[in-house]
Fold:
Amino acid sequence: METEVIGDDRFGDEAYQRLFDEIMSDLNKAVLIDRAKLVLRPDVPLFIFSIALKSEPTLKTIPDVCNVRAEGESIHLTISQERYAPAILSALWGKYGRRSVFQQTRFDLDVSGAKEEDIAAMVVSSGEETKREILGALWRSMPEGIKNRRVLMDGNIITVVATEEILLPDMMGEGRKIHASMGGAADV
Amino acid sequence: MFEVMMYDGGVYRSEELFEMIEDVGGVVLQKNRSSQMLMVTMSVPGEDREAISKLCSDIGGVVKSVPLAGTEIAVIGPTLGRHHMPHPICDIAEELRRYGSVTVVMGLARGRGKATSQISAEEKAIIDEYDAAVFVMGNFKSCVEKKSELIEDIRIPTVLVSGPKPEGIDDKCEAIVSGVGRKASRMRTPPERAKLEEIADTLERVLRDRKRSLEEDPLFVHPAEVKQILEGYEPIDMCLRPSPMVLHLDGLRVKIPYREHREYLENVEVFGRKLGEVADIFPSRIDDSSVIIRIKTLSQVAYEDARRN
Structure:
């Protein structure tokens, strides 16, 4: 993740770059972000946090994150993307019950009495949910008092424009400019 | 004059230490036992310090200096939210505890934001109950300078801790320590530990000035002596709250309800006088479950006696 900070408070700029990197890593979102641009103007106050994701979050089904194969009367799953493991387990437990799901190792699961096509259709993460989590992480990294926020989102670019009181048109204009500079649409 | 020191060692022969503290007329301020290890913070007469230190080393422990012992310090952040509170504030509070202070961590109800941050009169009154306050602010210079308004009317000594070094606000607080702003992780690295020590040392210096001014016009009775007298009072003895009595530089906080125990506290005898005559006793602003006792100075008591006669 490359982070660019634009601001005129040297201490604050460095501190916020570090904070942003640490918070995104803590919340496991750094791996999803390709580039980030942070505009910090505490004197206004105006904060614009814009990120370009590596790819637009889309709906993920079990076969997207696991290898699935039928073995006798059960279905064997090998998890290939560990970050989805809790969601996979929760989806399988919800549909088949805990007694039917055997977790042999950290990555290997057996589901008895299941059909391969049913498991293949199960959704473990929607794109919307991922975007909401990323947005939550962005809000968490922003200063707490900057509560008036507007989100610009298209494709894999997410920009948050935030101020403390009234969000003026020129603030939104600046936000759109940053959004466009990251590769987003200018008329979002 | 009472001096505060800490014994750090084993429980073996610790009874001898407690006996000696009692014999010299000292007070145990805090006692923490963990398995076979024991830490005792005590207040003893200055002339007996050497004898106590000798006994401590004889029974296999060490004597540590706790320069902030006998004080209660508030560490305050703009809010209790994760943006402000968790890491630097807790680390600072922990460091101050290592220096012997009893610390309280506090967040303001509406302290967030630059233009909209506020502090209420109630909050100021609560903060004024402590010996000193450490205000921990953020990373932006303009924000810190603007938010210094929050500490303007605090009467107790305040230390401002912030990321950048603010300008033009030196008269609003006793000291400023820069280099600690909002953080997403604990302060573990050597430069960060050094910064924590700097904050504790700054606070020690600020409180030394306060102690010096108290020495110029001493209190009628030392808070540790009042603590000793009140220790036998059953509601305090039975109180399950941590540290039922907390020493302040000019008095103490007693964690029992004011309304129920006011009469006893006012009438308890201290060196031939009623405590109510030589101290101001009032309920804590936090709630009714604590009592603040502010001991009057000798000159104040003499002045009031002269006026009465």
Summary: Chain A touches chain B at residues 9-12, 15-16, 18-19, 22-23, 26, 40, 42-43, 45, 140, 143-147, 164-165 (CB under 8 Å). Helices of chain A lie at 10-26, 62-65, 85-96, 116-120, 127-141, 169-181. The CA atoms of residues 50 and 178 of chain A lie 7 Å apart. The mean pLDDT of chain A is 92.
